[in-house]
Amino acid sequence: MASFLSSIRYLLADFIGEDEDAPPFLPEGLPAGAASVVSDAINRLIDYQGTGYAQLYVDRVRRFVGRRDVDDAMLVEIARLMAIRMSYQDPIRIAQLKLAAFGSGDGDVSDRSTDDVAKFRIDELIEALPAVAGDPILGVLGKLGWTRKPVSIRFSTASRWGIRRLKLEASLRRWRRFSVRYAKERAWTERWLHMINRCLEKQPSAAFTMVQTADMIEGYGDAYRQGLADWHAIIDGLAKPTFDGALPLTDLAAAVAEARAAATPDPRQVALKRTIAAIRARALSTSANAAAG
Prior knowledge:
The radius of gyration is 22 Å and the shape is globular. Helix 11 runs antiparallel to helix 12, helix 11 runs parallel beside helix 13 and helix 12 (about 250-260) packs antiparallel against helix 13. It has a two-stranded antiparallel ribbon with strand order 1-2. It is built from 13 helices and two strands; from the N terminus they run αααααβααβαααααα. Mean pLDDT is about 90; it is low at about 1-20 and about 105-110. By secondary structure, it is mainly α.
């Protein structure tokens, strides 16, 4: 019974956002050059979601600490980019940052008021809901073709009501880990780390380039969706088939750089898909000619 009650307590604590665990320690064996980056990331993610979420970050970084094929520069880049991606921008995060910039809220509001408007897609807002509610709504929006509809949200410290609303929005962080978006972001981060690991095994010369692909995805709205779609196109078209042995691409780093240069703000990805197809055709042709010779 005691064990059961303890489990319920921790479940409810996570559910309502109470996180009493101590901040995680830096991973053992972490190079001195990476310590400040990881330490800053821990503080950032505690503020973003809590100590449990920061611990997840530390556990992920630990996978690469002490590996002979990961130098200090690469480890720092993995740690830096992972912290950015794990603190993805949603309305909750923007409210948090807005309040942090505003300060405690004491004093003359008119002296410190600002008013910003962020334009999200409607599917981003629905993805902030728990899956049990968000998935059915997203299905309906998809059938209606409304997922890309823009929704403007005002983040304001221009009045006391605006500040109270920001505090309410920021408090919703306790629900974030149950949202549709959180599950997708967690899956993306794990796939990115998996691709880095496979690159280290199959084509280590391209590993740093693979790490840096994370910076393709940033912000929110259409720009975020475009970067995410472009990243998956490059991974599915070039990196994964190379690691699987289906594509004889000897210089993956150059191929990824070429594909990234072709990426444009085009939802159809015409230029990117054409470039990926050309890279694949060259690789297959070169391999065939080498075999024939």
